[in-house]
Every structure is written in C-alpha cells, then in structure tokens.
Amino acid sequence: GETVSIPFWVDDWKPASFYDKIVANYKAGLHTLCLLDIKTKEQTVENLMRGRPIYEPPRFMTVAQALVQLREIEKDRGEGIAADGTEVVGVARLGRDDQAVVFGTCAEVAEADL
What we know:
Elements: E1 4-6, H1 17-27, E2 34-36, E3 38-39, H2 45-49, E4 59-60, H3 63-77, E5 87-92, E6 100-105, H4 106-109
C-alpha cells in the first residue's frame, strides 16, 4: 500500500491525514509502511526570530509514540486499525549493529525498545 509519514504532534498542530491512508490501505487488504518523524537541526521559534543559529537536540520518534498518536485518532474515528490486538511489525535502527525488528500486537510492540 501507500507509504505514510507520521509526524511529531505539537500542541496546536495534530495532523491525521496519515491515519486516513492507513485505513484505505487496510480496507484494500494492503500493508502500510509508516515512516516515523525525526527532528534534526530544529530551532525554537525564539532562536529563529532572533537569527540565532542555536539548534535543539535531535529527536527520533519511537514506535510507542507513533502508536499513541494513532490511538488518539482512533478514539475519534473508530476504524479499529490500532486496537491492542492488531498485529504490527516495528523496526528501529535498521542497518546498525543494534537494529531491532519486533512482531506482535500493538500492545506488545508499544512496550519494545523501538
């Protein structure tokens, strides 16, 4: 199916378009590759406005964080794609010595170090 990107949510910006694509893939009997957000070389609004080249530390979205966001959307939409028993594969640090690949339910994978 179509690949989606899951962005970090902030207080006033919580996009959900990725959820709709996951649902469409699911209804078509297709898998969905979800790319999780990374933040590198990001500046605060204050530093950006003042022209200061000071950057925030890098952040990498975890599978658990992505599942929390999916479940938040799920509460409103109720499509059943992020239920505790839904089977998923979580992958982290692919290609590195410490890579991890975990298969299980949403509830199980949310507890893994991904």
